[in-house]
């Protein structure tokens, strides 16, 4: 089987070049052709010698996951369903706004962490995505969007922000996610700043510490409950990594974070975690941590057993947080008509469940 060069970051490509007897600077050329120029055809890489191009064609490919479907909602939100083999699909969502364009990327097929309100969690875990499958989502979206992008007020390129908020728990696919992050940040590849790349985690504490050391990008932590008793139910990994320890990890993370706050995500579930008393408890919980709160109206799916909080409940909850001085945003729902949502994304190509998309762009800052 051919080597897929999308699996390599700068270091990996340098290793690959050494193996085929090429000088290290070839790795940088390749990196630029692949990720900056979005080029998949070795023959088009005009500053590589013909002999090298032939060698590459024989030994390697540049192959992102294949597109199964591509939908754009009236509000511009665009969703790709990509095949990763064996009937499995993953989703990638693009959310354009005036001053930024955010790409929401998946890290696994399914998820092992089984959060009660998450459709991806309901599907169980299938497998980790490879680097080529993770970065391939960005490679593909960037290529397609660049072809039609005309410089809009406020930004010069289609994708300015990345959020790892698609299917899966990024921090349980650590090595592949970090290699992909390296490529997102590399000036010879996508050149994004650390502040504009966000990893969202349900709170895998040891991996949060490793991320802080290896590649401290912006961090969003899925809280969803103001105390351990409720969080144990909603986010079962809390039984292993409870709130007090999680908040400690957030404080440590802040010492290296590119932003001076952590984003806490809080899905609003009717009658479960949306009372004024729970808002007050949440204020006490996060009191000592520089943070922003992002309230996410629950996106329903069949047999979820949960309902979305009413607009009134959401605004009452938000008011309590804001009055206590916490910066709080409520996520808008976008692209409903094309059916895509974090927590509701397709695990199987054959899954035709209707989904609604909610905007994740606020978190991307
Ligand atoms: N596994 C990571 C990232 C992917 S999920 C995490 O849990 O953080 C991205 C976000 O979507 C998380 O905050 C998650 O809790 C939230 N989410 C999951 N299911 C949802 C649903 N049905 N409605 C709204 N948000 C949901
Ligand atoms: Fe996994 Fe995140 Fe869904 Fe929980 S919310 S099951 S961690 S994808």
Helices and strands, with pairings:
Elements: E1 3-4, H1 10-19, H2 25-36, H3 50-59, E2 60-61, E3 66-72, E4 78-83, E5 89-96, E6 101-104, E7 108-110, H4 119-122, E8 125-128, H5 131-148, E9 161-164, H6 174-185, E10 197-201, H7 205-214, E11 218-222, H8 228-234, H9 243-254, E12 262-268, H10 276-286, E13 291-297, H11 311-323, E14 327-330, H12 361-364
Parallel strand pairs: 1-2, 6-9, 9-10, 10-11, 11-12, 12-13, 13-14
Antiparallel strand pairs: 3-4, 4-5, 5-6, 7-8
Helix pairs in contact: 1-2, 5-6, 7-9, 10-11
This protein binds S-adenosyl-L-homocysteine and iron/sulfur cluster (SF4).
- Radius of gyration (Å): 21 Å
Strand arrangement within the widest β-sheet reads 3-4-5-6-9-10-11-12-13-14
Q: Could you give me the name of the CATH homologous superfamily of the largest domain?
A: Aldolase class I
CATH topology of the largest domain: TIM Barrel
What's the CATH first level of the largest domain?
A: Alpha Beta
Give the overall silhouette.
Answer: elongated
Kindly name the structural category: alpha/beta
Please give the count of helices.
12
Distinct small molecules bound, one entry per kind: S-adenosyl-L-homocysteine, iron/sulfur cluster
| Uncertain residue segments | 348-365
What does the average pLDDT come to? Answer: 91
CATH hierarchy: architecture of the largest domain: Alpha-Beta Barrel
Q: β content, as a range?
A: 15-25%
Question: How far apart are the first and last residues' alpha carbons, in Å?
Answer: 41 Å
Number of strands: 14
Major beta sheet summary: 10 strands, mixed
How many separate domains?
A: 2
Helix share of residues?
25-40%
Give the SSE order as H and E letters.
EHHHEEEEEEHEHEHEHEHHEHEHEH
């Amino acid at each position: 089987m051919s080597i897929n060069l999308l699996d390599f970051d700068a270091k990996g490509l340098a290793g690959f070049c050494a193996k085929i007897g090429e000088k290290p600077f070839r790795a940088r050329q390749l990196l630029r052709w692949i990720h900056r120029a979005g080029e998949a055809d070795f023959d088009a890489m005009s500053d590589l010698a013909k002999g090298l191009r032939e060698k590459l064609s024989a030994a390697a490919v540049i192959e992102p996951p294949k597109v199964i479907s591509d939908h754009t909602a009236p509000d511009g939100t665009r969703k790709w369903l990509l095949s990763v083999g064996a009937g499995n699909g993953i989703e990638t969502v693009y959310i354009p706004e005036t001053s930024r364009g955010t790409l929401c990327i998946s890290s696994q097929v399914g998820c092992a962490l089984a959060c009660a309100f998450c459709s991806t969690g309901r599907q169980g875990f299938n497998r980790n995505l490879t680097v080529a499958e993770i970065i391939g989502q960005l490679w593909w979206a960037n290529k397609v969007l660049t072809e039609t992008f005309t410089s809009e007020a406020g930004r010069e390129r289609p994708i300015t922000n990345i959020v790892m908020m698609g299917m899966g728990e990024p921090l349980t696919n650590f090595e592949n996610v970090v290699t992909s992050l390296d490529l997102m940040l590399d000036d010879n590849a996508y050149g994004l700043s650390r502040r504009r790349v966000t990893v969202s985690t349900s709170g895998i504490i040891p991996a949060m510490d490793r991320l802080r050391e290896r590649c401290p990008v912006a961090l969003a932590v899925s809280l969803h409950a103001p105390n351990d008793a409720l969080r144990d139910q909603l986010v079962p990994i809390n039984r292993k990594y409870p709130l007090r320890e999680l908040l400690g990890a957030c404080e440590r993370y802040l010492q290296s974070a590119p932003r001076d706050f952590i984003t806490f995500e809080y899905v609003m579930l009717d009658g479960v975690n949306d009372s004024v008393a729970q808002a007050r408890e949440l204020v006490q919980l996060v009191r000592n941590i520089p943070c922003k709160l992002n309230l996410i109206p629950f996106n329903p799916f069949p047999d979820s057993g949960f309902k979305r909080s009413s607009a009134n409940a959401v605004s009452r909850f938000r008011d309590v947080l804001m009055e206590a001085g916490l910066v709080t945003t409520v996520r808008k729902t976008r692209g409903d008509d094309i059916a895509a949502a974090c927590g509701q994304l397709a695990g199987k190509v054959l899954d035709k469940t209707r989904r609604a998309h909610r905007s994740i762009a606020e978190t991307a800052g």
